[in-house]
Amino acid sequence: MNNQEWTQEGQKYVMNTYGRLPLAIVRGKGAVVWDADGKEYLDFVAGIAVNNLGHCHPKVVQAVKDQAETLLHCSNLYWIEPQIKLAKMLVNNSCFDKVFFCNSGGEANEGAIKLARKYAKKHMGTDKYEIITMKQSFHGRTLATLTATGQEKYHQGYEPLPAGFSYSPFNDLEALKKNIGPHTCAVLLEPVQGEGGVVPGQDDFIKGVRKLCDENKLLFIVDEVQCGLGRSGKLFAYEHYDIEPDIMTLAKALGGGAPIGALLAKEEVAGAFQPGDHAATFGGNPLVTAAGVATLTVMLEEDLAQNAHMAGEYFICKLEALKKKYPFIKEIRGKGLMIGVECEKEVAGIINDCLAKGLLILSAGPKVLRFLPPLNITFSQIDQAMEILESALAN
Ligand code: PMP
């Protein structure tokens, strides 16, 4: 079947929740994907920060094949070998002590909200439950996480929303200070906002949030679902700020393409969950955690975070040159290979033009182009993408 036929079939049978482009991606290798018409694309979306190793990394594929032949699923009634291995790797490479596995970013944040509330009830008193999140943030599509999300467009139509969330402008410490109230138990933020337009947290702000949380005995939760796992140029984005959060959530890139989420916490915080308090049938199952072990191993062995840093600098340099030529480009920002280009006009036309010319990119809001290539992208692939982008900008 070709793109058009898949599009028609999809429209007929699949619920219409995504604004999809009229093509079906059927194969991927490294930073390249192919559609059902056989057309090749350079992929600077990478599954929205999922394919940090590129598509179908041979070591991930092998690990999934081996695990599928050994044990696909059992249950969290028993210990699961690759789950323990992945938890150990995450703990050894972060400031956290314990890991809970689930299946997505939204579910990881849902778990973080529950853990923060449990901890607060135990250690702060029964009247502490409110979580302050940032305006323009994005934390997921479950009822609690869409409420945590600081963009009203995600709330509309789903009311009544769960209580216990309030919103503070990102990168504004004075406003956050004022927003801390008698019921506050935690602050939740993305160190680099993704969906909200690729906005990095400022150094003073993130450090200030840590200090403010310490002074007020609040938990500091970072959502690294999009910016974590090498994407920002460090393994975890919080490392840029020389701070240690109390809780962190991961998903997307952790499984190298397999669906997995994780909630990490400091020992004392993790202890608020006792047997029976939280669960997920498929959470940390052998297949996805085997994929996770292979993914994290490659990421560490090949130092893809450092590659993201270097390739990101090169990429931004090239974009700065374009900014001089095209005055409708307002700002270029980001960290590592999480890069946003804010324009004075809507960017849908540019994205469609790039698509037609064989480059996949995405937006973050109507006026921001977002680039999330695999972390092992080469300079020559960046050059190739820049050529296509420039021809789209010139249109
Ligand atoms: N948090 C952040 C920062 C995200 O970018 C996303 C997804 N875009 C999520 C949470 C939700 O993740 P998922 O779609 O896996 O539930």
Please provide a written account of the structure.
The chain has helices at 3-13, 46-49, 58-70, 81-92, 105-123, 143-148, 173-179, 203-216, 267-270, 286-301, 304-325, 348-356, 379-394; strands at residues 25-29, 32-35, 40-43, 98-102, 130-134, 165-168, 184-189, 192-193, 199-200, 219-223, 247-250, 261-265, 329-335, 338-343, 359-360, 362-363, 368-371. The chain has 395 residues and is an alpha/beta fold. It has 2 domains: 3-56 and 303-394, Aspartate Aminotransferase, domain 1, CATH 3.90.1150.10; 59-301, Aspartate Aminotransferase, domain 2. Helix 6 (143-148) links the parallel strand 5 (130-134) and strand 6 (165-168). It is globular. 4'-deoxy-4'-aminopyridoxal-5'-phosphate is lined by residues 48, 104-106, 109, 138-140, 190, 194-195, 223, 225-226, 251. Keywords: Amino-acid biosynthesis, Aminotransferase, Arginine biosynthesis, Cytoplasm, Pyridoxal phosphate, Transferase. Its main location: cytoplasm. The modification N6-(pyridoxal phosphate)lysine is found at residue 252. InterPro entries: AcOrn/SuccOrn_fam, Aminotrans_3, Aminotrans_3_PPA_site, Class-III_PLP-dep_AT, PyrdxlP-dep_Trfase, PyrdxlP-dep_Trfase_major, PyrdxlP-dep_Trfase_small.
Summary of the model, kept short:
By secondary structure, the chain is of the alpha/beta class. It has 13 helices and 17 strands.
